[in-house]
Predict the structure.
Amino acid sequence: MALQEEIRRLLNKQKAILLAHNYQPPEIQDIADLCGDSLELSIKASQTGAEVIIFCGVHFMAETASILSPNKKVILPVLDAGCPMAKMITADDLKKKKSEMPDAVVVSYVNTTADVKAESDLCCTSANAIQVVNSIDPSANILMTPDKNLARYTQRHTKRRVFYWEGYCPIHDNLTVEKVLRVKEAYPEAVFLAHPECPPQVLDLADEVKSTSGMKEYVANSSKKEFIIGTETGIIHALSKANPDKLFIPADPNMVCNDMKKIGLKDILKALETLQPEVNVPEQIRLKAKTAVERMLAVPLK
Ligand code: 13P
Ligand code: SF4
């Protein structure tokens, strides 16, 4: 508790804001100014008046904040907290693919490096991929990177000509039909919520496919009492806290993203004392990546 209070005091002193992803450890979620999905965190980063952003998440998220707010200090308390899926495509890989598909519109998931975003036409998140793809000329060939599962889900719901990179999230891609059926059998009344990074056969079993904050919103508005959660288990803290009368069952308790657990309270304290380690994006890359992110932010959600 003393550590959490000291962090809040330093956040005030440094005119800093603490943004945390929904998968962060409970003790970090509990002191964040905003706990959200990738889209919400991007929007907040672009709008905050704070001079410093302490980003508790993984590297691409802090980079996105820096792309949108170059005049703010963006701090990722543990610099090697990365997203294994984002590492599955490089800017050179994408340039090569683009030379094979010169007319394709490239839509990259925000779970990519700034270099990859800079080579993309638009970005998307799990909360807006369908709307982003629907905003593109219907006759266009679309290349989605790097998540094959999000791409196939988006293709199914837009009927557009979507080609995809063969990347995946090792945590979500590991969820199987067998595991889900076992949990469904144990909790036959439960609503199954799945993240679009899960494989298509798993998504076929879902009652709803949602981003992490989409799940929070769905649960808050539902009269149902039991939910099977098909995403990283860190979100269950936020769900249980906001809905103490409801039961949340992980689709698989092994769905833990180690990178999302690398930051601890002591790292945040040190980051606030030193205002390090900072995440910066070279200006040339930043401007190109910003165009792709801003095109995404301009797409209406409804
Ligand atoms: P959300 O944008 O749905 O929070 O997802 C981010 C992520 O990394 C999922 O694995
Ligand atoms: Fe990346 Fe998957 Fe971890 Fe999300 S859960 S940060 S997609 S590895």
Summary: The longest strand covers residues 16-21. The chain has a mean pLDDT of 96.
